[in-house]
Amino acid sequence: MFHTKFVERALRSLGKVVTWRILVTITNFIGGWLASGSWAVGLGVVSFALVVNSILYYIHERVWNRIDAGKEISPDSEQ
Question: Is the pTM of the predicted complex or chain greater than 0.85?
Fold first, then answer.
């Protein structure tokens, strides 16, 4: 693995998980509700997806944090 001076901390990854999950939870509920006509089915879809996908996204973020591809050091941040 490559190592640069830029490392995304776990708290930042967690913050991204939360904001992403808010957006996706709303769309999952609407999709389940529209597809079934039942708000209960929409809530079922959301409940499952909320737990499973949050864990997967967090793991995904932490793995990508270890990869330097596409990361650059800007000239004004070098000291």
Answer: no
